[in-house]
């Protein structure tokens, strides 16, 4: 009996999706901890970091119901994880948590971007707008998380390639979608590989993106 | 002639609705005063504190027209109240204003939560999402008000049970909706009583909700 | 051959539209420069300053597709301008850039307000709500730009008539729409003239709008 590749891919996708959602939510939990928020703040920031990007994309594309509204087990998971974290996660665990989140976060950035690009392209958006919707899906959960904490979003000021990796991955996704010959999961795979690969490279080589030179 | 109970309830509901809207708007006005905003800032914050929660809920549920768009006498009332406040309200009146707002705010939190829960449940949302939409309706006006002032929302960091009371009230609402035998206004009444009752208890007994213990 | 007035007006409108979009986007670029954001932050702030107001109005009115989604050459222009600015604009050019933006910004405030008022009125909104939608279109790009930078929006605290001019212009637009006799572009023209004229007067005479007197 041959191995059922599509189903393997589907399972892989679901595993990435759930672990990325948890990693995104954990970034909200850690931010809430740094800001000394109460349990309501922790849960809200976890929710917004996990689902804010996709929700903003769906608002812009007028796409309903929201992903979290039709998959509410994910909301339960994020709430449960938030309560678990507030009970057991202590400052000494922060560093190891952040390291453990790195890989799911990278893969999730790629996967969420691909989902956004594909949805926008199917709704007939132009290539530029489709890639933008992909970047919004992957990046704006973190942006909303930071705005709710009264901070300038990290994605706008840390000079690391993050949104830029998602932009490149979204471009790869759209490019592959032009060819009829390729398997239907190829664009999604390309987006995940390009986004996560660039992000890993960027962190390893400590790439910096251009910023304003204010000296002159 | 028997007393017409449904109409009495309806009148009571309208009185709570209008006084709660004014109390929510006043919280925006006071925040604007603390931040030394100009008259535009005062009016916008009053509007957002009063209508922001319901507007966000309607955006998420794709429900139109907005409450304030079809009842624009409420917008006139909020605008008029804002101009009145900027003309006559002085720092020495702030404390008494805040005390006078306490009861309408509590009842309004319960009423707005019930409205949100009922709308979401009627649109077929799951119980968790329905209660969330109720909490968004009651709490996110204040959250948006604080975000527009560049502050971390009070609801996320003051360690007082506020969103939590709305959550419990929304749960009571949904629970009663399961029973066919009860009168149709019973869930709404239960939500208002549970939310406002818990909130009053919490303020009287100075309850605190858990927050992050950062010491260890 | 007579001069084709409607087409002249249409061309004038397009010129104002494009130069105002660029002026609004530049206000985002300069804000990003002051905050030392990276290239992602510069592009996002430029986009939000240029299109945020119209996008919020369309979200509230449930109007799709967004202006920028169906005219994506404008998004390309804003992106291109942002990259150009980060490459060549230096601190010594800031003052002259701000002065060059004044007129396109004034005319754009009037034009964007008129577009918002007309759209809302055609969707059957009440006069107050229509004028509010006009003000949102003209002013909330700047508000969202400031919120994303963790600042209290300039429009709420600089005590200069800005939103107030748009409010008056929107009122003039609605007023002229009551008369069947006038040419269909008259309301739009009235809104631009009143808004930009009041704004120019306000800057020349250094008018201030009322704010809170906290001393007593």
From TrEMBL, chains A, B, C:
Source superkingdom: Bacteria
GO CC annotations on file: plasma membrane
Classification via Pfam families: Gly_transporter (PF03458)
Keywords, alphabetical: Cell membrane, Membrane, Transmembrane, Transmembrane helix
Glycine transporter domain: residues covered: 15-88, 103-175
Residue ranges of the TM segments: 12-30, 37-53, 73-89, 101-121, 185-204
Subcellular location field: Cell membrane
Membrane topology: Multi-pass membrane protein
Family from the record: Belongs to the UPF0126 family.
Protein name, UniProt field: Trimeric intracellular cation channel family protein
Organism name: Diaphorobacter ruginosibacter
Organism taxonomic ancestry: Bacteria, Pseudomonadati, Pseudomonadota, Betaproteobacteria, Burkholderiales
